[in-house]
Amino acid sequence: MPLEAGTKLAGRYEIQQTLGQGGMGSVYLVKDLKFSEKYWAIKELYNPFQDPVSRENAVKQFEHEANLLASLKHPGLPVVSDYFEEGGNYYLIMEYIEGTSLLDESMKEIFPITKILNIALRICDVLDYLHTRTPDPVVFRDLKPDNIMLASTGEVNLIDFGISKIFQEDTRTGTFIQGAGTSGYAPPEQYTSGTDCRTDIYSLGATLYALITGQVPPDAMSMLLSGERLVLPTELNMEVTLELEGILLKSMNLKKEKRYNDIKEMREALRICLENYKGSGGEGSTKKILNPTSFLTAKTLISFSSRLTKKITDLRDFLEHPDRGGLRREFLFIFFIILLTVSLGVYLLYINSFSKKPLEVAPSEMVYVPEGKFFMGKEKKEVFVSAFYIDKFEVSNRDYKKFLDVTGYNEPLLSDKMAKEYNTWSEEQKEIAKKYIWMNGNFPEGREDYPVVLVGWEDARTYARWAGKRLPTEAEWEKACRGTDGRLWPWGNKWDEKKCNTAYGNINDLIPVDSYPYGISPYGIINMIGNVWEWTDDFTTDGVIVKGGAWTAPADQLDVYSYTQRKLNPLEKTFHLGFRCCKSIE
Asked: What kind and span of H or E run contains 398?
């Protein structure tokens, strides 16, 4: 929970308000009591590590990177003046910059291309400063519209270096500011460990693509895996020249060796492009933008050309399906809002349906959970949850191996604690462990459809990002498990050991992810009670919330109900801990 207004930190900084909140801490606006007219932004970071060695290493890394940030002096970067520890948490004192983020500004208006290019050149200047630090370059690694601040002074600032990543498991080392990146803006190498200055070049290209087209690019790893083509900017905005399109496509090449060699080279290309726009008199009329809705929202008008054709075809196929007779009667005739741009003759089609049945089709092996309230927790408090998709099954070894084969990510490993204890195990214990331990990038023989285990929280989150998904929140997980009537278990209010895999059923092992179909939840989701505890995306000061119980958990001893939760260290890896993924509906 964020600290309350009026709270004093280090006996000097008085909290005025909370500026932002995330899983690893909050950001506050504080008043400096030593200098009464001075205000700072303080970034709070939780330290979840219980192991003394891990905790000490995280603190050292935090101090190292805090000192690195403090050494950076550029008008496009906030000044970092101090850091301290208090109450087990860590605080970074940063210059408070008045202004609005590029994300917020882009939701208020559609920027002319010349304005976007001018902003891009300012960002290039900041990145060039970072990339040319000696003895080692500094890589920002989380460039996106909401990390770019348009200050009231007119300056363009990069904010929110991802220093909170230090307090999550990450064995990589290097000369970069820690940061996990953001889907749509992070290149493929950011999902593994090969980041360098060209990582920021991709992210800048993706940011410009989003601002110019009104669409966030697809996840890079998903494009790499599926072969999906990036929609050409010229197909989305008629003001985009082939020159500008070439810059965007080169900077966003999935192979980093084919991007610009450095930010100076990209800056020069953008500078020439801007001069050409000015020379042609194209000052960026917004009338030619074919997708003029607020960027980063999914409630867009359906654009023309191939996207319009596809939507009409999808709708026709949907309505002509033999099972859709009732829907055809309910579905009001498509009506048109014609937006005529005289110079282009562009017509935009807006499709409006009064049917309550969703046109969305759930992705493969996922289940649709509608928006609405449900009873959450033992006390059955009413909680509203937006609509989402969730995996029908737990992530299996087969699923996880696809991820490893594509990305080169580390295979599931024993936790440090288990690895240290391994030599003390009996031969019988080691033999049992073979059923769960991967060897040379391969899962245990014959267990491809069993849930993947020995994955930490960050491993699960990385897989989810790669798959174009995320981990469910506790509320989403619980609604998917118990529905809206507050039932104790997915199948109802009467315990039945034959509908789930707990120790009560005497299987004493994991089972395949598609087992126990009679224990499904109201939405048709399998194994939400038993088999493996499942990571959620909810991080608290006491640990990450896990749900569902496991094959080791007898219900009569651990009272594993739909509402039961446990809180684990994010570094925890066990033979009874796995996950399933979730996907927002935009």
From this structure: helix 397-407
pTM: 0.52
Q: Which of 125, 142, 200, 559 is catalytic?
A: 142
- In the three-class reduction of DSSP (H, G, I as helix; E, B as strand; rest coil), residue 13 is classed as strand
Contacts of 556-561 with CB under 8 Å at 24 or more apart are 556/504, 560/502, 560/529, 560/530, 561/378, 561/488, 561/489
- The structure tokens listed for 190 are 């950011």
Label residue 315 by pLDDT band (50, 70, 90). very low
Task: Decide if 149 is inside a domain.
Answer: yes
Q: Residue 271 sits in which domain range?
A: 99-288
pLDDT at residue 180, as a whole number: 56
pLDDT above 50 for 322? no
Same domain, 192 and 275: yes
Q: Where are the alpha helices (DSSP H) in 20-101?
A: 52-71
527 and 455 part of one domain:
yes
Q: For the chain, what is the radius of gyration of the CA atoms?
A: 26
Q: Rounded to the nearest 5°, which phi and psi values hold at 269?
A: -65, -40
Q: Is 142 considered catalytic here?
A: yes
508 or 303, greater pLDDT:
508
- Among 22, 102, 26, 19, which Cα is nearest to 296's? 102
State the pLDDT at residue 192: 73
Q: State whether residue 183 is helix, strand or coil.
A: coil
User: For residue 155, which of 72, 269, 42, 78 has the smallest C-alpha distance?
Assistant: 78
